[in-house]
Design brief:
CATH topology of the largest domain: Phosphoribosyl-aminoimidazole Synthetase, Chain A, domain 2
Shape: globular
Number of helices: 11
Oligomer: single chain
CATH superfamily of the largest domain: PurM-like C-terminal domain
Distance between the termini: 76 Å
Number of domains: 2
Number of strands: 12
Strand content: 15-25%
Radius of gyration: 22 Å
Mean pLDDT: 93
CATH architecture of the largest domain: Alpha-Beta Complex
């Protein structure tokens, strides 16, 4: 640099970060977020932290969980459709805390991208707001990060943290599960938010499908199949838990039934799953065929059409079935709890 010469002016935007675009994105989502708030939220949008008044509880236990939507966000970008992955994220988190008996209280989100586009942020957060309202959960805060050099142009990622509460005496731990208890499986809508790295490899690299291509086996386009919303099981979970009929519940995510069901079973107890007792959605056998997948890998990668499993006693199964039927909630008898066996989950 020459003596007395002035350095070139370099602004934040020259480094790839556009604060004005971020502010435009926030203006888009303010009303969406506001619609999810309840009187228990004591802070306004834009505060440094979110305040929630926990009242009306006698001996509450706070239950928290944090998760992402995985590489399903790549499919959203390919399809230029961003409103469903936000719903996926919230519903996934809601399911994770409700299997422990918790009532969802509030949710915080994280949105990161290489180059921020206000409309993309708006669409993603609109999905979160929809799911928060459906689950009675306040979208109390979040973070938007524009990080050029970390994410490529068009790339983004999302994560979410949820906080819920449950009275200590109603905490679901699985401790009351016994041999002979029945397993009721509730259907998934599709892949939900797990197995997408493999699904994308098989559908796009192996089968060479295009994102907007209609696939006969699926009865829809690839995008429509892969972007089906990860459903919330709040209503049936809450109904059975409030009725005192739920001994344990397992959210079937990454690891499938094989890895997730044992998480709620006491040591020394295992599960036997009766294959063929529920309809397997067409996307799963298609993926199995494309990858020539061995059964054990197949069952540990995908949910196979079961997104939630309830453990109920045989003597109270009829009451549980009636509640589910009254809710118009499909369910299947998919197995039972057994004593010691070689595998924690045995398929037959």
């Amino acid at each position: 640099m020459k003596k007395n010469s002035k350095p070139a002016t370099v602004r934040y935007q020259d480094a790839g970060v556009n604060i004005d675009e971020a502010e435009r994105g926030v203006r888009h989502i303010k009303q969406l977020v506001k619609e999810t708030l309840s009187p228990a939220v004591l802070t306004g949008i834009g505060s440094f932290g979110g305040g929630f008044h926990l009242k009306g509880w006698k001996n509450p236990v706070l239950i928290s969980s944090i998760d992402g939507a995985g590489t399903k966000v790549k499919v959203a970008a390919m399809a230029n459709k961003y409103d469903t992955v936000g719903q996926d994220l919230v519903n996934h988190c809601v399911n994770d805390i409700m299997v422990q008996g918790a009532t969802p209280l509030f949710f915080l989100d994280y949105f990161a991208t290489g180059k921020l586009k206000a409309e993309v942020l708006r669409d993603v957060v609109s999905g979160m707001a929809i799911a928060c309202k459906e689950n009675g959960c306040a979208l109390i805060g979040g973070e938007t990060a524009e990080m050029p050099g970390v994410y490529g142009d068009g790339d983004f990622d999302i994560a979410g943290c949820i906080i819920g509460a449950v009275e200590k005496k109603k905490l679901l731990t699985g401790a009351k599960v016994k041999e002979g208890d029945l397993l009721l499986g509730l259907p998934s809508t599709g892949l939900h938010t797990n197995g997408y790295s493999l699904a994308r490899k098989l559908l796009f690299d192996v089968a060479k499908y295009k994102i907007d291509q209609e696939v006969g086996d699926l009865g829809c386009t690839v995008a429509e199949e892969l972007l089906k919303v990860h459903r919330s099981y709040r209503k049936p979970l809450s109904a059975l838990h409030q009725a005192g009929l739920l001994k344990a519940a397992a959210h079937i995510t990454g690891g499938g039934i094989t890895d997730n069901l044992p998480r709620v079973l006491p040591e020394g107890l295992n599960a036997e799953i009766d294959l063929g007792t529920w309809p397997v959605l067409p996307v799963f056998p298609l993926l199995k065929h494309l990858g020539n997948m061995p059964d054990d890998d197949y069952r540990r990668t995908f949910n196979l059409g079961i997104g939630m499993i309830f453990v109920v006693s045989e003597g109270k199964a009829k009451k549980a079935e009636k509640i589910l039927s009254d809710l118009h909630e499909p369910f299947y008898h998919i197995g039972h709890i057994t004593g010691k066996q070689k595998e924690r989950v045995r398929y037959k």
